[in-house]
Design brief:
The protein is mainly α. The chain contains 20 helices and no strands. The protein has a single domain (2-187, 197-396), classed as Growth Hormone, Chain: A (Up-down Bundle). Helix 1 (2-16) packs antiparallel against helix 8 and helix 7 (124-153) packs antiparallel against helix 17.
């Protein structure tokens, strides 16, 4: 079951990340009358929808099963993407964004909980790093292939070409939902299937309140989750520097290709530099990339740095995920992850709205601010202490992270 479940999550993640128009979605929305601020506001609405629905959907996942939560999420996501075809006003796109965000909320935490509970208890932390690395690599591989195909489909950035790309995107996500139907629910997840939702929510809140290491990791994960809306701002940044349009798709494709390897082998950073230094390097790299991107001028340097930021951004994800899950019990895992993700999405939503307003004045200012924020969080929140806290927790309670 282990191999089957993880491999199926890898496949559905790949299919769900085949966004054939995302790389140029800002241009699509601008053609339909939206400003850069409104484009970022649409992203904010997606995140706010996730924020509102995060905990209820997490509780639902812990009650009815993580598999069904993923299926529902994928179906909502695909429906929202398809409806984008019919949007011609900010209000219409806002409704579609809310549907997509609700779909993300159903997915959020559910498949990660399912994967973690599928893993054998022995050496689960390292197994989770490898599993999350493979899943993250599949997602990035989707972002490698789809913009390359997208540049062929949307060669002239025409609305009719965007329509084809949108239909293909929605179809791919519907396929991901079909794959999700084949997932196996771990036995540990069934033990709380009949528990009252309020009890699950209270248990999740109590777990977060009762663990300082979990609070620390969650705070770091939340604060490092804001990426400066690179996907939204890179296209107009290229256009402002009179770069060829094909570089927009190429930057996302090559950046995602780099991320496919960096995320899959993120654990090797800890092998080479030690757990503490490896995690710090993973956290700092995108911040340094953003600072350099803010100072870039030519199309070639912008291309190289956008690729670097895309590639370096996800390195920390499998590492932080493994450390975080080590402090969460199986019975409330989806709920706890949803609580953390809820706050993260609120943080990103606020940051996206601010960056959208600032981007209408200066995109380099947004990149510089994002880089400084990432570096400050890494230093001030003592990211280097996270691996040590996991070790100390396991020594204090030998069964830590192995509940369920």
């Amino acid at each position: 079951m282990l191999r089957s479940n993880v491999s199926r999550v890898v496949l559905l993640t790949f299919l769900a990340r085949l966004h054939f128009y995302l790389y140029a979605s800002t241009i699509f929305l601008q053609d339909r009358g939206l400003s850069l601020f409104e484009v970022n506001a649409i992203d904010t609405i997606v995140l706010l929808a996730v924020f509102v629905a995060e905990v209820p959907t997490g509780v639902i996942a812990d009650r009815i099963g993580r598999k069904w939560s993923v299926v529902i999420g994928m179906l909502l996501h695909a429906t929202g993407e398809l409806l984008v075809l019919f949007g011609y006003s900010f209000a219409a796109f806002a409704v579609m964004a809310a549907i997509i965000g609700t779909g993300f909320a159903f997915e959020s935490g559910a498949w990660e909980s399912l994967v973690y509970d599928t893993l054998p208890e022995e050496d689960r932390e390292n197994a989770m790093k490898r599993a999350m690395g493979s899943i993250g690599s599949a997602a990035n591989l989707g972002f490698v292939i789809s913009p390359l195909i997208g540049t062929l489909i949307v060669a002239h950035l025409a609305q009719s070409e965007f329509a084809v790309a949108i239909v293909l995107t929605a179809s791919s996500i519907f396929l991901a939902a079909l794959v999700a139907l084949t997932l196996h629910e771990p036995e540990s997840a069934h033990r709380t299937a009949k528990t009252h939702p309020w009890v699950i929510l209270r248990s999740g809140l109590a777990e977060v309140r009762g663990s300082r290491p979990l609070q620390h990791i969650a705070l770091v994960s939340i604060c490092l989750s804001f990426g400066g809306a690179l996907i939204a701002l890179a296209p107009p940044y290229f256009v402002a520097h009179q770069a060829p349009s094909f570089l927009i798709g190429l930057s996302l494709a090559l950046g995602s290709l780099l991320a496919t390897f960096t995320q899959k082998y993120a654990y090797k950073l800890e092998t080479l530099f030690g757990k503490r230094a490896g995690l710090v390097i993973a956290a700092l790299l995108p911040g340094v990339g953003y600072l350099l991107l803010a100072a870039a001028t030519g199309a070639a340097s912008i291309l190289a740095l956008v690729i670097l930021v895309y590639g370096a951004g996800p390195i920390k994800t499998p590492l932080l995920s493994a450390y975080q899950n080590a402090h969460i019990s199986s019975s409330t895992r989806a709920t706890v992850l949803s609580l953390i993700n809820m706050v993260a999405h609120l943080w990103i939503a606020i940051g996206t709205l601010i960056s959208g307003a600032a981007a209408d004045r200066s995109i380099p200012l947004v990149f510089a601010g994002t880089g400084l924020l990432i570096i400050a969080v890494t230093i001030l929140l003592r990211v280097d202490r996270i691996p040590l806290e996991v070790v100390l927790s396991e020594k204090a309670t030998p069964d830590a992270g192995r509940a369920g």
